[in-house]
Amino acid sequence: MKTLLLAFIALTLTTPLALAKDTKPLRVAMDVPYAPFGERGPDGKLVGFEVDLGNAMCQEITGQECDWVVQAWDGIIPGLLARKYDLIVSSMSITEERRNAVLFSEPYYTTPSLFFTRAESDFDQANTSDTRIGVQRGTNQERYVAEMHPDAKVIRYTTTDDMYLDLTGERLDAVFLDAPVGIKWGKDDPKVVQHGDFIKEPARIFGQGVGVAMRKRDKELAEKVNAALDKLKNNGVYDDIMNKYFDFDIKL
Fold it and tell me: Strands 39-40, 46-47: parallel, antiparallel or unpaired by DSSP?
């Protein structure tokens, strides 16, 4: 009887510890559409590079895929700070300004930015006076155009879909955004073409790569996120996901 009692006590003491491992899904915010990083598929479900990578990361941490929350870009950090979700996985560049508000993981990808125009456009980066350039509000690209092309007319958008419609509808002369987004436009629509070379500098604007954002107090979560991303990069899962969406290496 004494032996059975001791065994029961030991079981009740150890079982809660065994269940203490993360099992609750992580709520993860993303701004869509931002193909090929994230968009809604024909069935309404989220698809894209960051969706696949985020789900793989969440699986490593909790054993479940992410609980995705669609959030407009200009409210995505306020939503995190208001505890509407746990993480942001949405092509957020790591900049000093953002570090003042959130805690970042190690960077998990980097891509350059590009100007895109219509095929017949005479857009000239060296002379943008009175040129209509579309950017997404709150992005590094918005800051770059505002600083480097102060003579241009900067048109700010909430979504990249609206930028695409205004570019192809001849209401913009050019757009400036993450290169893979515009490259996908060009693959789907020959009217959209790349203009000029990749732009990655200055670092004070474009940051040090893209990271997962968390609240500053969530240091333990950040350790788990970094460990999961590191494992995915080392076991080949990251490369498999990357090669599904890109023709070039974006891994840091």
Answer: antiparallel
Q: How far apart are CA 160 and CA 33, in angstroms?
A: 7
Mean per-residue pLDDT, 211-223? 98
User: 111-127: string of b/e by CB count within 10 Å (b at 16+)?
Assistant: bebbbbbbeebebebee
CA dist 6 and 9 (Å) reads 5
Q: Averaged over 91-101, what is the pLDDT?
A: 93
Q: What is the mean pLDDT of residues 70-87?
A: 97
Within 13 Å of residue 250, how many CA atoms lie on the same side as its CB? 28
Mean pLDDT of the chain: 91
How do residues 82-94 score in pLDDT, each as one tens digit?
Answer: 999 999 999 999 9
Q: Which domain holds residue 104?
A: 23-110+209-245
Domain count of the fold of the chain: 2
Residue 87, domain member (yes or no): yes
163: domain CATH number?
3.40.190.10
pTM: 0.76
Assess if residue 173 is contained within a domain.
yes
Residues 194 and 229 in one domain: no
Question: Among residues 244, 189, 221, 194, which one has the least CA distance to residue 50?
Answer: 244
For residue 1, is it within any domain?
no
